[in-house]
Specification:
By secondary structure, the chain is an all-alpha fold. The chain is built from 7 helices and no strands. The chain has one domain: AhpD-like, CATH 1.20.1290.10.
């Protein structure tokens, strides 16, 4: 499978994505726990069907020490007992923020309040940016059919 577009070879997307990736580094360096960042990135990518991002975030999380059990259960996090309450709140917010077109009200007050119980404003801001960034990346990758499987840990750092 070949990608429809090479983002970094094309001047407009190449230039824009350099800025997006710089913003992504700010989130990565934030106080939002790294494990939460990878779990959220993985879940958003699963929902959006972004194979290249699922590949990337599974490998990055595993390299950072995340267990195979937790990675395999992300798609069924509601029924899994391997996540903290804070992680569950972040995954719930990620799903609500990703599925805004599916839910008439967007992110409900209840979902927001559960996340706000576990994360301060800086962490919530980082979480919101991460969810938004992942939705952007997923959509770009899905629309251009970016192939999965060849990602190497640290490739974009």
């Amino acid at each position: 499978m070949d990608a429809r577009l090479n983002f970094f070879a094309e001047p407009v997307t190449g230039k824009a994505l350099k800025h997006v990736m710089a913003a992504g580094r700010v989130v990565k360096e934030s106080a939002l726990p790294a494990a939460t960042q990878e779990l959220v990135s993985l879940r958003v990518s699963q929902i959006n069907g972004c194979a290249v991002c699922v590949d990337m975030h599974t490998k990055e999380a595993a390299a950072a020490g995340e267990s195979a059990v937790r990675l395999h259960l992300v798609a069924a996090w509601r029924e899994a007992t391997v996540y903290t309450e804070a992680e569950r709140a972040a995954l719930e917010l990620a799903e609500a923020g990703t599925r805004v077109a599916d839910g008439a009200g967007g992110v409900s007050d209840a979902v927001w309040e559960r996340a706000a119980r576990h994360y301060d404003e800086e962490q919530l801001s980082a979480l919101l940016l991460l969810i938004s960034f992942m939705n952007l990346a997923n959509r770009l990758n899905v629309m251009t059919r970016q192939p999965a499987g060849a990602y190497e840990v640290g490739q974009f750092h």
